[in-house]
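Q: What would this chain look like folded?
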Amino acid sequence: MTNAFYSQFAGNAIKSSVLSVEVLRDALLPNLLGDDSSGILYWAGKDLARQFPVASNDDLVTFFEQCGWGHLILQKEADDLITYELTGEPVARRSFALKAPDFMLETGFLAEQVSERFNCVSEAKITFQNKMRLQISVTIDHEQPLLGHDPQAPLEIVRPEADQQPTDDEQSPQA
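A: My prediction, written as structure tokens:
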């Protein structure tokens, strides 16, 4: 179901309204969840990552863009620490519109994607944040393997077809 669900919406040329997503995420959920909002969103991000596993960093970047979370950049990868930067219009928009924007959904999502990739416990935290970008560091604990782990097959990422210019052979003759 996950691949079918993802493919149906990721391949849709008509994108959902930014307003509808932001109303749910930044107005409704914080009111429903109260003081526990950040923690619950972190765990919700981890749950989403288990539902929508990706196979590579390129797929992860594409998935973030498609979700409207921003542009994800792999900054540094070491044995026990991976650092990402999240930038772009979604980050700036939420940062300027909200007094204290919460990016814990994305943070939890990255933590779980790394856990799935390395088959061990991983935790993430925001290590830098300003109005235009944030840095998320994921710590990998190779000493704590995931027990009873049954990973799902990764998503087949839908990539938008690039606008291609016709070759000379494909161009129609001009009258």
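The helical segments are 2-10, 18-33, 37-51, 57-67, 89-97, 104-118.
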